[in-house]
Design a protein that fits this description.
This protein has 129 residues and is α/β, with parallel strands linked by helices. Helix content is 47%, strand content 20%. Strands 2-1-3-4-5 form a 5-stranded parallel sheet, sandwiched between helices. Helix 1 links the parallel strand 1 and strand 2. Helix 2 packs parallel to helix 3. The relative contact order is 0.16.
């Protein structure tokens, strides 16, 4: 699974990269420090999963997710925030994110969410009928 990290804190991106790259089935293909860069890198790199922070300069994660969902509807975007607010989770899902997690979750929980989102993306679409 190819993952793009979008977060305005370099130490968060570096830590996530270290954690994720220990996994045999995950490749971190890029990092962005704001939503605008996240949109551009997603267009260029075509990751399977985008781990998107909510609050960032230039363009927040909700606006970036809305753009990405409009352009790539089956893209797996997972909202990521220091805050565990239902309103923000709902706003991310309304923008097109498949899930929303708090930065306080464990590594195992994060990996489960990433793999679950990726697996959901890989499911064949039912025939129109």
């Amino acid at each position: 699974m190819r993952v793009l990290l979008v977060d305005d804190h370099p130490v968060v991106r570096q830590t996530l990269r270290m954690l994720l790259e220990r996994e045999h089935d995950i490749e971190v293909v890029g990092e962005a420090s704001n939503g605008r860069q996240g949109v551009e890198l997603t267009r260029q790199l075509r990751p399977d999963v985008v781990l998107m922070d909510l609050r960032m300069p230039e363009m927040d994660g909700i606006a970036a997710t809305r753009i990405l969902h409009a352009e790539i509807p089956d893209l797996c975007v997972i909202g990521l925030s220091m805050f565990d607010h239902d309103k923000e989770a709902e706003a991310m899902r309304d923008a097109g994110a498949m899930d929303y997690v708090s930065k306080s979750i464990t590594t195992d929980q994060l990996l489960a969410v990433l793999r679950g989102c990726y697996a959901h993306r890989q499911e064949p679409m039912p025939p129109d009928g």
